[in-house]
């Protein structure tokens, strides 16, 4: 395909394409909070939040995050628990943790100034080729490609690239194409124009070709291939995982919560004690009792079923059965605490466990 791409690029009307895209972006761009200025820190935060999350969802989180952590040093010096709390609801919490690790690195190694070269910026935690290209082009005017799934879709159509956009190694092909076409006068408007085109016009289904600023140059439109491209392999279905959750209340009416391990999914967040099980009900009770009995002297010696709740991640589904028990124990440790439901709300809690305390609030209190 690379040979074909070279041939396509040779004949492609590059200047016309660039001008149409950049002019359209400059006149039609949406007013978004991260476009207020070229502060690389603000752009960085927006790009991390926008990964796997829609613009409309991100805006209120972004505004609130910027109020809480207006500068890079505010974020670098913040407690991790506060950062996770501000991120709560956006999901993919490793993004927040990596972002904070990286801004600390910028503070320590680059005197608080976000690096402006591809080599330096790419070394920061959580900064992949897309984020690096977006920050460099938008904040510093460096002509680096910023290729995500949207840009691959748009380029697949414009240049009729038939390589599967679901295969990670094919990103290189699209980066090469963007490098060949990017505007050196205004790389920021070019990259943002591509992103905006993918979001508003060249959408996954029913692209609005009749409103498209680059329709004249678009090869898929010319050849009637708009509905055939891009080629994208199907994602694997999320794997179901059976979990039991213990809502355990002490004699003061407080609930036991535990902190998740510092690595892996939802790292360091708080939750009601949770264990993975086979689906059989009797076994669930046994596992819960075993899980907690040693430390927690359960009054009834048995958990009562409350309700079930599912939560879908990109790669797995948590199928959770929630049980209730009373305890006379008050034992706490670094990773186990007894708290009121109001105190739960002050801690970083995964959304599905928030659903649980909301249900408990309704049914138990
Ligand atoms: S003409 Fe249609 S397919 Fe081509 S870039 Fe524009 S919206 Fe996408």
UniProtKB/TrEMBL annotation:
One of its GO terms (molecular function) is 4 iron, 4 sulfur cluster binding. Coiled coil: none annotated. One of its GO terms (biological process) is mismatch repair. Pfam families: HHH, HhH-GPD, NUDIX_4. It comes from the Bacteria. Its EC number is 3.2.2.31. It catalyses: Hydrolyzes free adenine bases from 7,8-dihydro-8-oxoguanine:adenine mismatched double-stranded DNA, leaving an apurinic site. Binds 1 [4Fe-4S] cluster. Gene3D superfamilies: Helix-hairpin-Helix base-excision DNA repair enzymes (C-terminal) (1.10.1670.10), Hypothetical protein, domain 2 (1.10.340.30), Nucleoside Triphosphate Pyrophosphohydrolase (3.90.79.10). Keywords: 4Fe-4S, DNA damage, DNA repair, DNA-binding, Glycosidase, Hydrolase, Iron, Iron-sulfur, Metal-binding. It is an enzyme of class 3 (hydrolase). Its cofactor is [4Fe-4S] cluster. Residues 49-200 form the HhH-GPD domain. Belongs to the Nth/MutY family. Base excision repair (BER) glycosylase that initiates repair of A:oxoG to C:G by removing the inappropriately paired adenine base from the DNA backbone, generating an abasic site product. 8-oxoguanine (oxoG) is a genotoxic DNA lesion resulting from oxidation of guanine; this residue is misread by replicative DNA polymerases, that insert adenine instead of cytosine opposite the oxidized damaged base. Shows a powerful dicrimination of A versus C, since it does not cleave cytosine in oxoG:C pairs. Adenine glycosylase active on G-A mispairs. This is Adenine DNA glycosylase.
């Amino acid at each position: 395909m690379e040979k074909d791409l070279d041939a396509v690029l040779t004949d492609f009307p590059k200047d016309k394409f660039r001008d149409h895209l950049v002019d359209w972006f400059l006149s039609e761009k949406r007013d978004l909070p991260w476009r207020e200025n070229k502060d690389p820190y603000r752009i960085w935060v927006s790009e991390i939040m926008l990964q796997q999350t829609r613009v409309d969802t991100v805006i209120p989180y972004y505004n609130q995050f910027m109020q809480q952590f207006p500068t890079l040093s505010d974020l670098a010096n913040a407690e991790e628990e506060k950062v996770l709390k501000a991120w709560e609801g956006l999901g993919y919490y490793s993004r927040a943790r990596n972002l904070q690790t990286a801004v600390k690195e910028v503070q320590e190694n680059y005197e608080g100034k976000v690096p402006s070269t591809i080599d330096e910026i790419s070394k920061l935690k959580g900064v992949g080729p897309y984020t690096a290209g977006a920050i460099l082009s938008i904040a510093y005017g460096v002509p680096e490609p910023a290729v995500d799934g949207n840009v691959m879709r748009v380029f697949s159509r414009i240049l009729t690239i038939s390589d599967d956009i679901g295969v990670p190694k094919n990103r290189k092909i699209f980066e090469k194409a963007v490098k060949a076409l990017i505007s050196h006068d205004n790389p920021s408007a070019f990259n943002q124009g591509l992103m905006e085109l993918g979001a508003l016009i060249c959408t996954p289904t029913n692209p609005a070709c009749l409103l498209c600023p680059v329709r004249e140059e678009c090869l898929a439109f010319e050849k009637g291939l708009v509905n055939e491209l891009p080629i994208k392999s199907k994602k694997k279905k999320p794997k179901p995982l059976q979990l039991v959750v213990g809502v355990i209340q002490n004699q003061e009416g407080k609930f036991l919560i535990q902190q998740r391990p510092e690595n892996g999914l939802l790292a360091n967040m708080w939750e009601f004690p949770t264990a993975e099980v086979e689906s059989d009900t009797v076994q669930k009770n046994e596992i819960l009792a075993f899980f907690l009995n040693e430390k927690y002297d359960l009054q009834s010696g048995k958990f009562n079923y409350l309700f079930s709740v599912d939560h879908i991640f990109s790669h797995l589904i948590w199928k959770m059965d929630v049980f209730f028990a009373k305890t006379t124990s008050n034992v706490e440790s670094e990773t186990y605490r007894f708290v009121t439901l109001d105190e739960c709300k002050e801690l970083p809690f995964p959304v599905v466990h928030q659903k649980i305390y909301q249900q408990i609030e309704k049914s138990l209190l």
